[in-house]
Structure formats: structure tokens, C-alpha cells
Amino acid sequence: MKKHSRATASGTSLLEQVVDASETTAEFQVLFHRLNNQLGIVLAHAELLEAKAADQTDRMRATQVVTSVLDAMSTTREIRHRTESP
What we know:
Layout (H helix, E strand, L loop, with lengths): L13 H39 L3 H28 L3
Helix pairs in contact: 1-2
């Protein structure tokens, strides 16, 4: 018995769109995970530079990198939450 699916304006069935959206969400999750890992590595190195800075100028530069990486991680988390399926 052949199943009929209702085609949308784009010519794809609703089921196909749901599957595509699910796969896209999964792909985004992998990318967000990788990005978060990479930012974590940058954060660890910046914190190490901050702790071992020879003078105040170098410490302030490292602190700025730490702050920026934390902001980037927060932004990544917010984008991930906004792209997740409800």
C-alpha cells in the first residue's frame, strides 16, 4: 500500500521537511559543540597567560582575551538555544 504525503509549496512533504530540520539541528549541535571546545582551549591558554604575565600590561591584555572568550561562549550558547527545536 502506497502512502500519500501532502506536498508543500516547495514540493517537499511535511515529513521530509521535519526530517531535514532534525538533521540540520543535529548538524548545528555538532558545530556548536566543536566551537565551544575550541573556545575552551583558547580560554585555558588565556587564563594561563594571565596567571603568568610578567607585568600589568600583559596581564590586562590576557584578561581582555579571557573576557572576550567568555562572551563568545555565552553568545554561542544563546545561538544554540535559539536554534534548538522546541
